[in-house]
Amino acid sequence: MHRLDLHLPSPAENLAADEAILDRSEAGRGDETLIFWEPRETFVVVGYANKVATEVKVAACEAKGIPIYRRCSGGGTVVQMVGGLNYSLILRITGNGPTRNISSANAFIMERNRTAIESEVRSQKPEARISVRGHTDLCLGEVKFSGNSQRRRKNFLLFHGTLLLNGDLKLISELLLMPSLQPDYRARRPHEAFVTNLLLPAETVKAALAKAWNAETEIQSPPQADIQRLAREKYLTREWNFKF
């Protein structure tokens, strides 16, 4: 599997990169890839079908100059911030393998990620346990540090997520409403009681995930022209970001 560490100048380009690299693989011009990028500013990202007005404190975002974006996959709304880490997996869909359908892919990917991250956490806290909750959340005890979502094409899928490592968690309550859809295990807890930081260095987590996915071949040149086009025509437009 290939590995790509992105250092793109804007959130819109980083969001566009996932779709551009998925498109490239689907067109037969790329293969399975593990992508990493770290936010350098605060912004909000809603899931594809989220309604901005019911998930986001829009006035608070506007007052603070915090942009709102929409990603190409489902799932809930997140606050991206310094101290977070994003990863994306571009995986081939096989007819009888673990990526054959949404549920099987969720279980396969989440368990591999859980095992990789738990090994690092337990090296510092032997009693710690990482669990998969609500199908695509990773939790430390009863609190969440990672949410994930999936988008599928015919031959390849995109599975990506955000990991809270050392972020300013109070921003979540300041910028987001309570989500319209909640997993049962949340038990209606407010944001500050539901999320936590993993408190591991980004490089440690990246190395663990890269090892788990055998992502050894580094890509030096992402499809920059496709990324910039998608950012300009889609991820930077109000028509896309506020479509619901």
* Low confidence ranges: none
What is the approximate shape? Answer: globular
Radius of gyration: 17 Å
Q: What fraction of residues sit in β-strands?
A: 15-25%
Largest sheet: 8 strands, mixed
Quickly give the CATH architecture: 2-Layer Sandwich
State the end-to-end CA separation.
Answer: 36 Å
Order of helices and strands: EHEEHHEEEHEEEEHHHEHH
CATH superfamily caption: Bira Bifunctional Protein, Domain 2
Secondary-structure blueprint:
Blueprint: E1 2-5, H1 11-26, E2 33-37, E3 43-46, H2 52-55, H3 58-64, E4 68-70, E5 78-80, E6 84-92, H4 102-124, E7 130-133, E8 137-140, E9 143-152, E10 156-164, H5 170-175, H6 191-194, H7 202-212, E11 217-218, H8 224-235, H9 238-241
Parallel strand pairs: 1-2, 1-11, 3-4
Antiparallel strand pairs: 2-6, 3-5, 6-10, 7-8, 8-9, 9-10
What's the short version?
This protein is of the alpha/beta class and 244 residues long.
Write a concise keyword list for the protein shown above.
3-stranded mixed β-sheet, 244 residues, 11 strands, 8-stranded mixed β-sheet, alpha/beta, 9 helices, BirA Bifunctional Protein, domain 2, single chain, globular
